[in-house]
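Much of our argument rests on the idea that a fold can be written as discrete symbols. In the encoding step, the backbone of a single protein was reduced to a row of integers, each denoting a local shape. This step matters because it turns folding into a mapping between discrete strings. For completeness, the protein is quoted in full, as a sequence line and a line of structure tokens:
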Amino acid sequence: MSQNKTQELLDFVRQLPFGFAYAPIYAKGTAIQSGKISKGKTPLERSHHTVMAPSDVALQIERKPELFQAVGVFTGARSSGLVILDVDRNLSKLKKKWGDSLDGAPVITSTKANAAKYLFLVPEYLWGSVKGFGLSDTGAGYEVLWGRQGLLYGAYPGSSDGKAPEGSYGFEGDIEDVPVAPEWLLAEMRDAAGREVQDGGFIKNRKALDFSDRDPDEVAEIIQSALRVVPGQGNGSRDHWVKVGMAIHSELPTDLGLTLWSAWSAEDPEFSNEWATGNPCEEVWKSFRKGPVSLGTLFWMADQQMPGRLWLSEDLRKVVSDVETDNVTRIRNDVLGFKEVVKRGQAIQELKNPAEAGHNLNVLALQAGYRDAGAIERLLISNMQYERQDAEIPMDELLQKDLNFEYLVPDLLPSPGTVMIHGAGGDGKSMAAWTLAKHIARGIPFSVRGDLVPVEAGRVLIINGDQSEVQIQQQLRDLEFVNSDPVTVQMGWDLGWYYRFKQLIEKYQPKLVIIDSITGCSRGSAFDENKKEFASPIYWLANENGRAFPACTILLIHHANKTGGFRGTTAIRDAVDEVWGLRRPDPKQVEQLGPNARLITVEKSRTGRDGSKLILKLENDLTFSLTDYVEPHSEASTPASVVDRVLQRIRAAYPRAVTRSELAADPLCGGSVDAIRKATDRLKTRGLIHVAERRPKKGGGSPVSAYQAVVSREKSLNSCPTGAKSSQGQGLAVGQPLEFEEVVPLVPEQVDTPTPCPTAETSDSNGSGPVGHLSGVSPSEERSPEALDALMEQAAELWD
């Protein structure tokens, strides 16, 4: 392999995500440890029983680039349920039949025409009930790799029939975003597992088995459970093959044991030729004698593929555990009933000491036959959801429901809603979140689209897992929180405490919950950040917000990776309603915003706020301000600009309410009648305007729906003048019906050049709304230039 090809392979390997079991692949024609010659698809021997990370594979390739020229990945439970659909022929036919289900899956290509490999994930609850199969099993032109190894990238050795020349594997798609396997593929894998039971005839009805006697049928079932997850190792793996046979023979030296070993052996496609003249296992089986290889060896192999004995059913797991501990006399334990488990579990959740609660949950899990305390918590949550009587809702009933989308801060924080903010360490993530907390705690108006909107005061709950008490105290002082602010801090939290979280929200009824941070509050998680399961608690928070616990806005703080994105699995992004990225402004933006500002960009939004920005700014008095950042649109015809212009005109008319016909006739609004309608609907949904009824002054005519801006009473004095005088004056209450005699245009009919509404004076932030102290921070004190210079020297410390 050339130096360039080796470097390309190394670059690919180093960007692979953690969570899968990888393997360096021997180059075609090289001698491997068994003495045989590699055909170009053989993995390094120790990768069969050791989970190799991308860095481990890269090290082997760097040291011996002539020996290892490709990278592969093991499928099955070892790689979090990864499965490879390997299409050897008829790809076009398969695409025609199942094309939509293949779209979006990472795909591996080669020089072989009409062939490709697709990567999918099998949900964990199906791991024990699915099986892969070979090309000859169905005749459909594809095989399914489950428990076996498949190549990802690097040198392609050419097809076995010589029709496809040697070349390179290509890789398309995002391996960090592997979709769940389509239902048709899962059905075939379940069918393959079912055929094994039906054709082999090894497993009897479990209810008919006598678990206390350990009869041959029971031993056969245990062995077959292990063989389901232990893969063959292909070319050069005779030692592995023999050890599996010896392990079976040690406890089941009968024809039934031989049949189990033979059925497992026949699944390895690289030995298909050896079956042409008979069963190659029979003669070797006769040579086996009692020795050091026992069923413990087979169990160890199975544990490498699916840790925690998950390859066994719970009842058989108990049998194996008794054997391993020499507990020959087994006592049948009565498993606790469902109602008793729920009753005890709910009582344990009421304990104040989380360590005591965790211990008691583990004890209860053992008594109830569950794997761990997490299973008990999931049981309690499922029971809670059932008691809430969630049911299927026909679409017509759902559309008729009186549901309102609400905002904690109009057009900024949805409630219920889940928002993640990420950024580099020391850039001010916590300061941004806690500044929002100050607005909520005190009901301080917030600048949105250049004008202040009201914020309803409410309690704030800060869940901390990153910092000590002294650090939190200092940050509270930096932001000038006082004793009377309705803020509660919860130290030492775990996102897996679902039931305790529900209790906490019910106790304090917060409007805003800040979790600082996702990683800091996930120390009890059994999964690393790169695994999809890591995001499970966040999915629960998003789905149950307003259902299992009172509705609130949840703001999650997360750390950035080296490239500026958020750390860990992309499932975190999928779980939340909005993703905010915080970063330092670039040099050009520093000229506009000042050196002590941070820019927050909405990277994802389910309410259409993608691309919106906020400014977090450190003021001269060392307090922080956070405001909406308004940038002029580059194209005035975009839908977003129509919405902004409609909002500007409705605000300009405040306190007067404006009808859609007036807005459509206003040359400054522009847009079609349909665009005006959609703009008002969106603004109403975002909480920036509301409907205020208008009726004729002297009778006659029906009331007309009009729109009034939702603005704060603390809005600046240089707000835009209205287009017509209101009979109610500036003291009109929000939502009060207005009287009118005729429709008055918002602007004169003859307008050559639209004059934009003047905005309030800004504080070193061109293009933004009123910042500084309109956003609720304390005004600067009178200080000398020398004193201000001394204060600013401390500014950098506050960002940390």
About this structure: The radius of gyration is 33 Å. The first strand starts at residue 21 and ends at 26.
